[in-house]
Fold these 2 entries.
Entry 1:
Amino acid sequence: MGLLDKLKPHKPQPKPIDLGFDGEGNLVVRWDDGKESKFAPRWLRARCPCAECVEEWSGNRVVGDAQVAEGVKPRGMQQVGRYAIQIQWSDQHSTGIYSWDYLLKLRDEP
Ligand SMILES: [Zn+2]
């Protein structure tokens, strides 16, 4: 235990080492802690964190499971900086930025 260990109280968060869509449109994330997550497209779309889907001032979700159409698929994604991806969905929605932190939170949801 040196001084540096004391200055870094938090363990580094797991980060994706690889992510992409499979044939069914699931987002598959491989993490640097050895885990792998698979997010179903409609489920993930219904958890879009953008200001159109979640009211900024209240934090209430406006677009969720009930509003997202069946069969919505990802059309593409772009990396945003070194911490997030932005997904273009087949329902023309593309403002959602999914950060590593957010995906990590979703990873632990059932
Ligand atoms: Zn959104």
Entry 2:
Amino acid sequence: MNSSASQEQRLPHIPVMVSEVLQYLNPQPNGTYLDGTVGAGGHATQILNQLSSNGRLIGIDRDAEALEICDQHFGASARPISVHQSSYHNFPVILEQLGISKVNGILLDLGLSSIQLNSETRGFSFESDGQLDMRFNRNSGETAAELISRSNEQELADIIFQFGEERHSRKIARSIKSFSNLTSVADLKEAVRRSTPPHQRRKTLARVFQAIRIAVNGELDNLAVFLDRFINYLSVGGRVVIMSYHSLEDRMVKHSFRNLKQSGQLKVLIKKPLIPSEDEQAQNSRARSAKLRAAERIT
Ligand SMILES: C[S@@+](CC[C@H](N)C(=O)[O-])C[C@H]1O[C@@H](n2cnc3c(N)ncnc32)[C@H](O)[C@@H]1O
């Protein structure tokens, strides 16, 4: 095993582009920050290191298991962090509950964590062996198996094409619907195997699983709601940093920042999105598709 592979196995989730996140979020010791996808707290730990006891970090995640790891990690310490199980697009409700009207910075690190991807029971990975769940919050909403069951062939083809950018989407959707009761990772893999050529099968599988996960969790809808709202909760001089792992998400962030720039509210801090260094990409294969954009509220 090479050293990067062993590092990936040791850590539950390796945070991506940490120094770039800190550079652009630029946490001030007494500032209030929101980490909308706190996960296992990799970035949160680094942000907290820069805060004084008068600073504050609010962490949100949909995943109770990730928040449990955060609680274990931060719970016993006197660090100024509170974590909340919710979707980040609901952050105004959480801020209101905490009596906070504006924050000095917001971080979103979209997509899923290695903890979720590596889980044998949650169905996120085509390399796992469980049932097709794929929900970030296991206590709410429909599972991937339920979504597949209630969607017709055309709807499934659209999901696979739009969110997975997979050109065999129609054939795959037909194959999925030919199963009388498709509920497991193994079933979905078999449906893809029957309908696609063998070369590049892993890429096809990755695209199909990604597409269904995005649909199950309404990921693009959540991002759209967030992008409509965040500016009103950012103080002047406050920063927003968003890391995405899907071209559709990156495009949404780019357009939102551009519109807010045109209305004079936001300064875009990076023209082209940042990507991880070659070193980081070599050490952490999951970082490879990351794109980071950052902006600052100016009025
Ligand atoms: C890439 S991981 C974040 C990792 C984190 N930055 C760290 O360093 O540990 C993405 C996280 O976002 C969470 N997530 C995805 N969609 C979400 C949403 N709409 N609201 C809140 N959390 C969400 C996932 O559950 C996952 O834990």
